[in-house]
């Protein structure tokens, strides 16, 4: 495990591939999603030139504005990773190719209805909460398991997998355990017949090596790519 653990410290010392953009080397099977919240579009273009094809935003407004400004970049996949209020759900359906943060049944049903109306089929991840964290939404796994039969009936959503956010303050062992736990739930549900749950979106700049070791298929990296948000020229 030792190899990959110094993610955050390593970031600063690995050579930038363009000015102020870092692209961590990941196993081929892991999709690198650049979390571009608070990052200006010029720096996003640099990331694109460096090979990034997946950008994630956590506010619908910002997603809308950036998608518009970068509409010439045709092969970008846009991800929504923030808490989604139902009054923003239609915009999210119009703008996002992936929605990582579907955290309750009514939201899933709303998105399904809007997707039908908009003629879109967003790829959807169900956000799971594995540790108590008052700041984070998400299904408790047992609760999600009870709702899977209903969720797979929502034919205008392309259900792809699960997402989680590790809460602040866990040590490496606890973080690893949390990511492994999501891996175990996925395997359990796949074996129950929910074979579409193949994606595991877990791991951020501070913990992605642990997430990859635990089976992540997508990591969501902001600061590891763009540097600290608080010092970035955009914020
Ligand atoms: C901001 C954010 C990230 C990226 O965080 P970094 O620490 O910058 O890598 C990942 N996932 C979600 C849900 C976020 O809101």
Question: Which secondary structure elements does this structure contain, and how are they paired or packed?
Answer:
Blueprint (H helix, E strand, L loop, with lengths): L6 H7 L17 E5 L5 H9 L4 E4 L2 H10 L7 E4 L8 H7 L2 E5 L2 H14 L4 E5 L13 H11 L6 E6 L8 H20 L7 E3 L6 H6 L4 E4 L1 H4 L9
Helix pairs in contact: 4-5
The chain binds pyridoxal-5'-phosphate.
Describe the fold and architecture:
This protein has 235 residues and is an alpha/beta fold. 37% of the residues lie in helices and 15% in strands. It contains 9 helices and 8 strands. The chain has an 8-stranded parallel sheet with strand order 7-6-5-4-3-2-1-8. α5 links the parallel β4 and β5. The longest helix has 20 residues. The radius of gyration is 17 Å and the shape is globular. The N and C termini lie far apart (35 Å). The chain binds pyridoxal-5'-phosphate.
Feature tags:
alpha/beta; 235 residues; 8 strands; binds pyridoxal-5'-phosphate
Q: Name the beta content range.
A: 15-25%
End-to-end CA span: 35 Å
Residues in helix, %: 25-40%
Q: Compute the gyration radius: what is it?
A: 17 Å
Order of helices and strands: HEHEHEHEHEHEHEHEH
Largest sheet: 8 strands, parallel
Catalogue the unreliable spans. Answer: 1-13
What class would the helix/strand composition place it in? alpha/beta
Q: What is the spatial order of strands in the main beta sheet?
A: 7-6-5-4-3-2-1-8
> Overall mean pLDDT score?
90
Silhouette: globular
Secondary structure: number of strands: 8
- Counting DSSP H or I runs of 4 or more residues, the number of helices is 9
Q: What are the distinct ligands in this entry?
A: pyridoxal-5'-phosphate
